[in-house]
Structure formats: C-alpha cells, structure tokens
Amino acid sequence: MIGNTLGEYACVYLVQTAGLNAEKTSALRRACFKDDVKMLCVKNTLLKKAFESSERDYSELYDLLHGETTLLLSNTGNAPAKLIKKFRDKNDTLPMLKGAYVEETVYIGEAQLDTLSNIKSKNELIADVIALLQSPAKNVISGLQSGATKLHGILETLSNK
Predict the structure, then answer these.
(1) pLDDT tens-place string over residues 79-114
(2) What residues form DSSP beta bridges with 40?
(3) Are 13 and 69 in contact (CB under 8 A)?
(4) Would you say 25 and 80 are in contact if contact means Cβ atoms under 8 Å apart?
(5) Do β-strands 96-102 and 105-108 pair in parallel, antiparallel, or remain unpaired?
C-alpha cells in the first residue's frame, strides 16, 4: 500500500512527530488535509521496503529510518515545509524534519527546512518564465501603439493645415 501511495506523489518528507500529544497530532492532520498534504504514520521497515521497490532512488533517506517516522506527501515541493513552519509558529515545538525527497533531490536534516520552504513549485516557475517572456512583447506592442498614435497625430495636423 505504501509503495502505491509513494508513486502518486513527487515529494516525500520524513518527519518526526513523537512528542506531539493527541490534540496537536489531530491539529497537524487537519492542517495537512487543508493544505492537500497526505500524512501517514509508517513503520520504518515497511517504508524502507517501499523505497527499495520504488522506481525512484530513495537510498539517501535510508539512514533516517529510525525512531518514529511520519510521512508527509505532496505534489507541491514546498507545501509540507511551509506547513511545518506554520504549524510550529502556532505550537513552537514539533514536527521536526528528518529529510525530504523533492523533485529528484534529497534534503537531509532540520537545517534544510528554510531551503525547502523557499523552493518554488513547477507551476510557480512556469508562471515566472511566462511573465518574463511576455514582458518584452508587451514593451514592443506598447511602443508600436504609441508610435502609431504619434504618427496619426502628425498626419492629422498636416491635413488640417
């Protein structure tokens, strides 16, 4: 079951939630549901088997499979990281990032949380590229329109004389 679920998501976060009480765990689950992040509590041995049978190379995450592990799965690279930071702002505690696999890149350790939260998603990058491509075209069209207006004004002035 875990293997099938892994294949549906481009981003996998390994998080430690041990130490959260039931109320905070429920709040984290609700936050995940709201932000379209799937949260699964898994056994490390089953997760390692799912990683090994996957088409992707998760081998760099194997050393992180100790203690209690919770998976946060998403198709938006920065969504789980932003969720963790936002959740911490409210509770000033866990969850703690063990590591993540985002768009074929592995991030290990709590120190990578800021980097992960600042990553742009594919859709955000595509929007940025389109905006950059449209900008010169808009400038050319604007220049042509202002030039046509000036030319029209000059011709009208000449015709009136």
Answers:
(1) 999 999 999 866 566 899 999 999 889 999 999 998
(2) 71
(3) no
(4) no
(5) antiparallel
Q: What is the pLDDT of residue 121?
A: 74
Looking at the domain that runs over 2-119, which CATH code has it been given? 3.30.70.1730
Q: What is the pLDDT of residue 126?
A: 84
Please, are residues 81 and 105 in contact by the beta-carbon 8 Å criterion?
no
Do 83 and 35 contact (CB within 8 A), yes or no? Answer: yes
Task: Tell me the C-alpha distance between 95 and 87, whole Å.
Answer: 8
What's the rounded Cα separation, in Å, for the pair 156 and 161? 9
Query: What residues contact 73, with CB distance under 8 A and at least 6 apart?
Result: 5, 6, 8, 9, 11, 12, 13, 37, 38, 39, 40, 80
Half-sphere CA count of 80, side-chain side, radius 13 A? 29
What are the sequence ranges of the domains in the chain?
A: 2-119, 120-161
Q: Which residue has the tokens 């959740």?
A: 87
Per-residue pLDDT tens for 43-62?
999 999 999 999 899 999 99
Q: Is 14 exposed, middle or buried (0-12, 13-18, 19+ CB in 10 A)?
A: buried
Residue 32: closest CA among 92, 76, 93 = 76
pTM for the structure as a whole: 0.77
